Structures are given as structure tokens and as C-alpha cells.
Amino acid sequence: YNNLLPGNSLFGSADQVFPRGLDIFFRPGEQITFDPDGPGGQAVGQSTHYSQTKGAVFDSQPRTISNLIADLTASNPAAEAAFNQTPGSTVVNGTRADGSP
């Protein structure tokens, strides 16, 4: 929607640099639990970090924000709050692709 406003025609374009709103802060990953690339390269027990420029970063924790964005059910407090604060919202009753309500 924002790209439709005057002066925003390039918002969301793949060939545009996304502006940073905050300073860069890379969190550490975890130690490697198996050898992902055979002899050489990364080894079991080696620490990983999101600032590294090659190899794999090990992170066993799911990304909470990704889960919240994908979960639009009433059991997600963020989705429920958004629903309750948006006038004209309606609940859509249906069945998920896996058959669950």
C-alpha cells in the first residue's frame, strides 16, 4: 500500500537499498553440532555468529517474529490485539489446508 502514495513509488522495490532504522547488531549463533561441509571448513564445536560472511550459522531457536507473522489465529495475542483494534474486522471461519479448524 505505501508504494501507492505520492513520492513512494520505489518502496518495496527489489533493486532499492532497504533503509536501516537501527544500528546493526548481530547476535551470536550456537556451536556446530555436526560437520556440515566435510573435512575443512566448519568443524564440530566451532562457534557461529550472524556476522560471519561464509559458512552456516547454527540457531536452534525459531524466529519468534516469523512465527507471529505466520500465525494469524486467535491463539496468537498479537493477531487478536490487531483484530480487536481494527474497526470493521470480521472473523473468518474456515478450515486450514491441513484440515484443522
Task: Write up what this structure looks like.
- This protein is low in regular secondary structure and 101 residues long.
- The chain has a domain at 61-87.
- Helices cover 15% and strands 0% of the residues.
- It contains 2 helices and no strands.
- The radius of gyration is 21 Å and the shape is extended.
Features:
101 residues; little secondary structure; 15% helix; 0% strand
What's the topology here?
Elements: H1 64-70, H2 77-84
Number of helices: 2
The value of Rg in angstroms is: 21 Å
Can you give the helix content as a percent range? Answer: 10-25%
Rounded mean pLDDT is: 82
Q: State the low-pLDDT regions, or none.
A: none
What is the 3D form?
extended
Number of strands: 0
Summarize the structure.
By secondary structure, the protein is largely without helices or strands. It has 2 helices and no strands.
